[in-house]
Request: fold
Amino acid sequence: MERLLATSRYTFAVPLSDGYGLFHASTGSVFRLHGRDAKKLAALLSGNHSLVHESVLGAELTTQLQRAGFLVAPDADELTAVRERYWQARGNAPVVLLVTTTMDCNLGCYYCYESRSDEALSVDDADTLVDIAKERLGRRGKRSLHIDWYGGEPLMNLEFMERASQKLQDFCAAAGIAYHASVVSNGTRWPQDVGGLVTRHRIREVQISFDGLKENHDRRRRYRPLHRGEQDLSSFDQAVALVDQLVRHTRVDLRFNADHGNAGDLAGFIELARARGWFDAPYRCVLMVAKLSAYSDRSAFLRPHELSAEEFEELQEVAERLLPKEAQDDQDIVGGFPHPKTSVCGALAPDSAVVGADGLEYRCGLQVGETHRAVGSFRRDLPLVAAASPGTDGAWWDSFDPTRLPTCSRCSFLPVCWGGCPKRHLDGDGTGVAGEGQYWRTQLPRQVAAGFGESVPQGFAFTEADQFRDDSREADDENEAWHA
Ligand code: SF4
Ligand code: SF4
Reply:
């Protein structure tokens, strides 16, 4: 009997020099269409919901397209498959403790929204941290622990870091649990023996932020009064000297924070990194361009400085063009092509936690200090500060499911996006959430074309109709003519 199949809601078509490239956002499959009917078939497969008779495409092509997910059973529930993968990823997420050793920082960056209080974890809190790790690992019997040292500037509380790191490693060694760590730092408070610190703390990744070339960086990342040591000449020079050493011991993620005032420095910064040998070092050095943005009400003052989506895209193109392949931030690319998501951020990982220097538990590092966003307290002597809507955030995080949101559930980018940053949804940041759609409309075609070794035509982007398909029965009827 002849098979009757339906087009998938997750197929995208990209024009190539010879035909079209298909990409399936949920299976990650790719397929190249050549020949006379390529354009028509690409439009059918990536358009509104349509029924397709096997006789139209022939048995062989129909089977190939069905295996790759581009054709599905007419009653297939593709959204449920995405939902199952999402919840599986949440359950399987590794245990990561993001530990704010101190809220203090020696620099006063103009865009920093953090409270910069002198609140800090004390060496006596090291045992509590081990208890937290034990409890989180024990919940689902997980066998690996990752600590992300965070601040303020985490190295301003080196005493705590040394004590806690040793205790955590001792515990993990005794329990047969894998241990590794990372650091997010401004690069100005590291001791002389960088290699020793990396080894002692089992650090496999360090993120150092730059705000442009020396002039811009130093102006934006000034030393705060009474926080400037005798040796501190330039926060830029110190961070550069640190990266020179770090790349010999561990992976370095360079984060270039871009806004209107320093976007023009990116090309020069990449040149500087190349000239210093950071991209040819023994360990991988990756550069990611981040858009300085207002993450919450506390940083709303940043809005006038933010790059528009188009300006940010241009900057990413500069990075793509100038960076060697190994230095590009390609975590969403597998085998050259974009890939459906299989992991969640730490805020959605049920066994992970953000440990605030104030002793409170948060879900996202960007919330530390926003006590009304805390979801718990680690210190028995510290009652959870009354939240604006007490108790609701914890439940919100536990149940956040982009596949059930009215917009994301209808979106064809869902399997590669999963709603983007969940904090934006929590904060009701409609502009930020809309920015995710804008990102995928322009970036996904470029990523798919790059996987085929090509570029999309100048200005090509997916449209709103590509993002939100009509999967009603009427759409089937409209497309019926194609099958005849
Ligand atoms: S909630 Fe957003 S900002 Fe926070 S960890 Fe997740 S993705 Fe990052
Ligand atoms: S692109 Fe926008 S609508 Fe689509 S899944 Fe991401 S956040 Fe949701």
About this structure: The pocket of iron/sulfur cluster (ligand 1) is lined by residues 345-347, 364, 366, 421-423 (CB under 6 Å). Residues 430-451 form the longest helix (22 residues). The mean pLDDT is 90.
